[in-house]
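Suppose you are handed a protein chain with no further information: no name, no annotation, nothing but its sequence. What can you learn? This example shows the usual starting point.
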Amino acid sequence: MDQTHTRALEALQPFIHLATSNSATSPRFVANIITNATSSPQTYVFAELLETSTIQALRSPDTPAEYQGYLKLLEIFAWGTWQDYQATPNLPKLSIEQTLKLRLLSLLSLAATVKPLTYQALMSALSLSSTAELESLVTAAIYASLISARLSPATTPPTVTVTAVAPLRDVQPQSLPKMVTLLTDWETRCGEVVSDLEAEIARVKENAEKRHAKERAYQTHLEEATKRRQEAVEGSNAGSGRGRAGVYGRRGGARLGAGMGNKREADDIDHDDGYWESGDGESGSRMDIDEGAGSRGGGSRHSKRVVGRKA
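A reasonable first move is to predict its three-dimensional structure. Written in structure tokens, the prediction is:
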């Protein structure tokens, strides 16, 4: 789209050169410049041509009436529409090329202001009698890179969906104060939005810092508690070891004392010397010696000899 604007400015330069030349003195010559500029296929901007003194000279009361309307016609081509042309009296009649050019420029303005862009609205604004003429005009605008659009004749209602518009319409001088006011209001709103965003960012950072500080404090408290718990467990383990050693010492001494007591008690008890006392008052040894083995008498078992001392 920017290349289209550049080409339109380049296409206007020859007409500006003619308007600023020394030969551009008669109203008729100036009118011819305007006619040719508005009929050229590549010219879509006209502000620079309008600013020349030669074109502005048509405002003079001395300009013949038949040429006075050309200045207004050029203004309509610069920032007006087809409806403006029809509503303004005493304007020159348009050629076929001028008619197509003004309708294309009007389509740019309508595409930027009217939503949705229906077939019916466009046909009424551009004085077109059929959908075929409208579709042909929109197609010409697309191929000329004036708009990016899609025709939707099957929708209800049929519409032209425009996605991009070339910046080819000039700004009317009377609209500049209004535009300045709008831009100033927009700048003020943007400043307020920026201030609100900065305040929100500061609040988020403050909350984040508080949260981080709380997390650090919690982590520190957790580490201290873990350390105290570990020290307490280590101290408890050390105390348990000393207690076990004392218990083991006491238990060992008890066993030793018990053993010594048992030994003394054993000394007080008669030792078992291997003798026994029979039921009839005789004492004898607990071990019987069989003398029958190898003795006379053969297979009879001899009486056992009791070995031992008598009580």
